[in-house]
Amino acid sequence: MKAKFTKYYGKSAKELLAMLSEEGHIDIAPPIDLYSILNVLGVRLDESIDLDRLDTAGSVSIGMDGVPVIWINPLENSFLPRKRFTIAHEIGHLIKHIDPNVGMTEYIDTRKTLNRKASYWDSKEYEANNFAAELLMPTELLKEHGEKIIAKYRKLTGKKMPIDRLISEMAKIFNVSEQAMRFRLRNIGAI
C-alpha cells in the first residue's frame, strides 16, 4: 500500500494547503489545523519523552510498517507555538525530503540544526523552516487579517498601528511565536 503522504511529495506548503482544501480535508483559516493535516498525510505524532534523544527537537521517519512518524521532544516543545512550528517543520521534511523509494527515510533535528545561526545550516533545514512558516502563516491569510487589524486600529485610534502591536496580535491569531511572525512578515516584505 502506498503511503498517503506520497501523493503530496515535493509540493510547497501553499500547494499542499490548496490541495487539502480542494479535497475537502481542511479549511484554510488561522490557526492552521496541523492535526487534520497529519491525519490526512497518515502521520502518527509521537510526543513521548525519550531520554536518549534529549538534544533532539524533533524528527520524522518512516516506520517499518511504512507509516510516517513525527516525534517531537516535549521538553524542547512545551511552548505551544514552538510545538506547532516544530510539527510544521517536520511536515516540511516529510513532504519535501522524505522519499522511501530512494532510501531517504529519516530526518533528525537538533537544537543546532533548527538554529538559523548554526554554522552548518543546510539548504534542507532552510527549506523545512520556510515550509513551516508558509504552512502556519500563508501569505494570503496574513494579508487578509493584517489589513483588518490595521483598519480596526486606525478606526479606533486615528493613528498608525505600531509594528510590535501588529506582530503581537497576528501571532495570537495564527498561534505562532512573535519571533516567527516577525520573521515571516519581514520575509514576505510586509514590514
How is this structure best described in words?
- It contains 8 helices and 4 strands; from the N terminus they run H-H-E-E-E-H-E-H-H-H-H-H.
- It is an alpha+beta fold and 191 residues long.
- Strands 1-3-2-4 form a 4-stranded mixed β-sheet.
- The termini are far apart.
- The mean pLDDT is 91.
Blueprint of the fold:
Elements: H1 13-22, H2 34-41, E1 44-46, E2 56-62, E3 68-72, H3 80-96, E4 106-110, H4 111-114, H5 123-136, H6 139-157, H7 163-174, H8 178-187
Parallel strand pairs: 1-3
Antiparallel strand pairs: 2-3, 2-4
Helix pairs in contact: 1-5, 3-5, 7-8
- Beta-strand content estimate: 5-15%
What is the rounded distance between the termini?
46 Å
The sequence of SSEs as H and E is HHEEEHEHHHHH
| Unreliable stretches | none
Helix content: 40-55%
Radius of gyration equals: 17 Å
Strand arrangement within the widest β-sheet reads: 1-3-2-4
Treating each run of at least 4 consecutive H or I residues as one helix, how many helices?
Answer: 8
Chain-averaged pLDDT? 91
Structural class: alpha+beta
CA-based shape: globular
Number of strands: 4
- In total, the number of domains comes to 2
Biggest sheet layout: 4 strands, mixed
